[in-house]
Specification:
Low-confidence stretches: none
Distance between the termini: 38 Å
Largest sheet: 9 strands, mixed
Number of strands: 23
Strand content: 15-25%
Strand order of the largest sheet: 9-10-8-11-12-13-14-15-16
Shape: globular
Number of domains: 3
Length: 464
């Protein structure tokens, strides 16, 4: 959707100085990654101000800049669009482009599994449509507009991830993207630091359904009672999926294939279809059901959906399996964590066969509010139930994971606390043996990828 600078100025209600007859080829809010021909939005954030980098944007070949009123222009001849708020201008332009494009948008939100579910839905729909998807996890007030601005006229559908840490954020994202369909994966105790209760989180997630435009289709995880309850307040079409409950798309006969993933049968409208999913854990079967429901609802053949699911690969640091020549395996799930996701992965590791020892490297989980200590302890108790031979808690509140494991009978010599990820990596590199399987999982801020770095520095690993 290439636009000229004067068109953009009109769309955002800005005042243009300099040349407006300039074609914009892309959009950026970061001068470090700006490409020649990009329009640079000078965003003011809590830790930075893009107006300080206007000259760098010019030197890197920006097509123009969007600045807030009163900012000093980098050059009188350079295209400058002045607006009251650059954030509002970015979001307004994204909404304008979305309406000009006019394709179908599927919004995806939930406490856990948003990115994986988004990738699965895009892969399934890609068997029939030309699909634009959220890049990585650019799912906030800046990232989502930037994704929308990258849409191409040839693309007929988009799958956009919508994240939040406070009430009203999903509503804002939905007002920008105007999604036609919404997927809600689950509601769990995440970001409790910013909410009074888990019910408050559920209300914030339901903002996606409130923001849907025609034909207004909601795909809801029927296994989650809070998500299931959203159907009663939604006047559009509801499609349900689930493993443990009766649903429109129900998984049956789920078989754990260990590190090869899962096999399961989907029952829908009187027919059964078999699937193999090469991603780890029962939670990913549920995520796959969401993608299957969206695909079948859009008229894809079952064989095409099956092929797309079978071809899935884990995103970086989201359940990747790394095999080491020394005879041990690491499940790298270090991108992020929360109590439910960590507990599910601990149970998964506990049920794995063919390994002599199970090791849990669990980092601190952030933004959990006043119940943080108990939520961490509960994960330690799960590690004890899983028969972990070694539990390493990493950073801050992860000490409570160690406490929970200890309270459940894990001997002291099987427990370690590391102040940071580098220290945890050193401990693991010394302790690991042939026949071990290791789960590495923690909040992004703990930087548990350093644990893998430490292992690679000592041992010979090769990603599968």
């Amino acid at each position: 959707m290439n636009l000229q600078l004067d068109e953009i100025a009109r769309a955002v209600g800005g005042t243009l100085t300099g040349s407006g007859n300039v074609q914009v080829r892309g959009y950026s809010i970061d001068s470090r990654t700006l490409n020649p021909g990009d329009l640079f939005f000078a965003i003011k954030g809590p830790r930075f101000d893009g107006h300080a980098f206007l000259q760098q944007a010019v030197e890197k070949g920006a097509a123009g800049v969007v600045v807030e009123s009163g900012a000093i222009a980098p050059s009188s001849a350079f295209g400058v669009v002045r607006v009251p708020s650059t954030v509002d201008a970015l979001q307004t332009l994204a909404r304008v482009v979305r309406r000009q494009w006019g394709g179908t948008i599927v919004g995806v939100t939930g406490s856990v599994g948003k990115t994986t579910t988004k990738e699965m839905i895009a892969a399934v729909l890609g068997r029939k449509f030309t699909v634009m998807r959220t890049v990585g996890n650019l799912n906030n007030e800046f990232g989502l507009p930037l994704c929308l601005l990258r849409v191409e006229k040839s693309q007929t559908m988009a799958v956009l991830e919508m994240g939040m840490s406070a009430k009203g954020e999903i509503r804002k994202l939905a007002s920008i993207a105007e999604p036609n369909e919404g997927v809600i994966t689950n509601v769990n105790p995440v970001h409790l630091e910013f909410f009074d209760s888990i019910e408050g989180i559920a209300e914030a997630k339901a903002e996606l359904l409130e923001g849907l435009v025609e034909p207004r289709i909601a795909y809801l995880n029927n296994d989650d009672k809070r998500v299931r309850a959203m159907a009663g307040k939604f006047s559009g079409t509801v499609v349900t999926y689930g493993v443990d409950s009766d649903a429109g798309f129900k998984a049956r006969q789920v078989r754990d294939l260990g590190l090869a993933g899962s096999a399961f049968t989907v029952h829908h409208e009187g027919r059964d279809a078999d699937f193999v999913l090469p991603l780890l854990g029962l939670h990913n079967v549920t995520n796959a059901l969401a993608a299957i429901a969206v695909g079948i609802s859009h008229g894809l053949a079952w064989d095409d959906v099956r092929s797309a699911i079978a071809a899935m690969k884990p995103a970086k640091k989201r359940g990747e399996v790394v095999q080491f020549k020394e005879g041990f395996a690491v499940i790298d799930d270090s991108y992020n964590s929360n109590p439910k996701a960590l507990s599910e992965m601990i149970r998964f590791v506990g049920n794995l066969h063919g390994y002599k020892r199970k090791i849990i490297v669990a980092g601190e989980m952030l933004e959990l509010g006043p119940d943080s200590a108990e939520l961490h302890r509960s994960c330690g108790r799960e590690a004890a139930k899983a028969g972990a031979a070694l539990v390493i808690g990493v950073q801050g509140e992860a000490r409570s994971i160690i406490d929970g494991a200890r309270e459940s009978g894990v001997e002291e010599q099987r427990l370690r606390f590391a102040a940071n990820a580098a220290e945890a990596g050193d401990i693991l590199a010394r302790e690991v043996r042939n026949g071990d399987v290791i789960l590495v999982k923690g909040s992004r801020g703990v930087k548990l990828e350093q644990v893998l770095n430490a292992l690679h520095a000592v041992h010979s690993g090769m990603e599968q």
